[in-house]
Structure formats: C-alpha cells, structure tokens
Amino acid sequence: MNLKHGIAALLLGLSIGISAVATNTSSASAATYTPVTKLTKVSYYTTMGANTSQNYGVYATGGYQTSAKNVTPISYGKNFAGKTIHITREEVANGTTWLKFTYNHTKTGWINQKATVTSTYRLYAPLIGQRPELPTGCEITATAMMLQFGGAKVTKTSLAKEMPRSSDPNKGFVGSPYKTSGWYVYPGGLMGVVKAHMGTAKNMTGYSLTSIKKQVRRNHLVVVWVGNFDGFSNHALTVTGYSKSRIYYNDPWTYKRTSMTNSSMTSHRKLDANRALSY
Fold first, then answer.
1. What are the sequence ranges of the domains in the chain?
2. Does residue 143 register a pLDDT over 80?
3. Which residues are 261's β-sheet partners?
4. Regarding the domain delimited by 36-122, which CATH topology (the fold level of the hierarchy) does it fall under?
5. Are the C-beta atoms of 201 and 195 separated by less than 8 Å?
6. Contact assessment for residue 127 and residue 145, using Cβ atoms and an 8 Å cutoff
7. Does the keyword Chloroplast apply (predicted)?
8. Is 86's pLDDT higher than 60?
9. Which contacts qualify for 102-106: CB closer than 8 Å, 24 or more apart?
10. What is the radius of gyration, based on Cα positions, of the chain?
11. pTM here?
12. Are the C-beta atoms of residues 243 and 117 closer than 8 Å to each other?
C-alpha cells in the first residue's frame, strides 16, 4: 500500500468511527427520557406507605427517567414511612402515576403513587367555629366551611342571613340559629343556599359512607348530620377526608379538626337519618 492510499484509508476509518459514536450517542440520548403524558395540579394529604417490600425512589423534578435530573433518586420512600405528606401535582409517564409531595414544608420530591397509602385522602378545609354568634347554627356553619373550601366568598353569618326560616326543617331553619332555643335545618332547607353559591347542590341523604368518601375524593366536601354528638341530640359536621378505617372532619362546635372510626360515624349518622349535603 502506498502512503497516499494508507492516509486515505486511515481518514476514512476515523470518519466512520466518529459517525458511529455520534449516532450511538444520539440514539442513547433519544431513548433516555420518558415523556409525561398528563400533568395535574392537586392539593390533598395522604400517608407515605411502609415501603418495605419495595423501597420506591424519590426523584427531584418528576417521575423516574422523565429528565436527566430524575435518573438517580435523591431519597427513598422508606425515609418518610408513616408520615403525612402534601400532594401538589400528579403526572403520568409510561402509564405510571407520579406524585409531587412535600413533607414538613421543607422536603420535596416525586414518588410513585404505589409508595403511598392510596386509601388515605384528606383535604385541608377552613375551620370555622359556630360560637358565639350561632349557638344552634351548626348546620349553616358546617356549610360555610364546605362552601369556603369550594371557593365561595361567604361567612357563617352571611349564610345564616340567607338561610330560609320555616316550621318545616326540610324547607328552612326552625327557630333562630342566633339563639340557644333554636332548633335545626335539614339538607332540603339548605339546597337553595348551596346552589346559589356553587351552581349545584346535592342532597346526599341516605347515601352510604362509601359514597361520601367518593364525593370527598372528587374534592367536594360533605356536610353530615349526626345524632347524640357533642352533647346534642342532632349536630352537623364537615367531612374533609378519610382513611381505610377513619373519617376526618371539622367540628363547628368544638372548633377542631379531628376524626372518628368508620363504625362510629355510621352509628351517629344513623341516629339522624343519614342526612348529608354536598354540591
């Protein structure tokens, strides 16, 4: 082989090698990341699972392999096991749902939805106490919490003024909610008030606890009527969430966010004819 032909062959070999490297690099880059097919803004609380059988990775800015920043975990689900976490985004990539969560207002990351306790779903609703203005106005105060969460610009007293009065609790409040001698109002008497502010109103009287949970999962709070509660023969609470065994609610009389077991809620609801109201 003469020198001229040798140099030409060498240059051709180098050219082919460089092209092959560039092609392989380009292919690897194109195949690295998974596209996000759905991104939704949300706001609810749940619990991180034990992550013992599978310790799911936590990623910085999205689901696994959705970008260069999401190839290596920044933490693991087991580090947050049993903790309450705030979910603010849901995204779907390659058929998997990923959740953006914040723990203790400081630690943030993305994790596979399977790493969480999917049977737990809690909403953070405004807490409003009925006292001192409305000593017997638990129903309208509970409704005010529901409507404020839904975005309505209302107060307990503005709704108390709107609430119709009647000798029939299915049509309006019996007596005066401003007095200790006041009585009560049923869902039918509040349907007009709810519809005026939300555009819809849903009388859920007779609905099961499972149906109420499904309504909350739609991000619609539910006012439930309960009997023999807080020292009253009948009372109203605002349901804000649930777990597998408990119902979470805001209590307008005690001015507390708290919970009770499913069985307790079922018993108390039965004592007041399973009345409930939503939108």
1. 36-122, 138-278
2. yes
3. 246
4. SH3 type barrels. (2.30.30)
5. yes
6. yes
7. no
8. yes
9. 103/48
10. 28
11. 0.87
12. yes
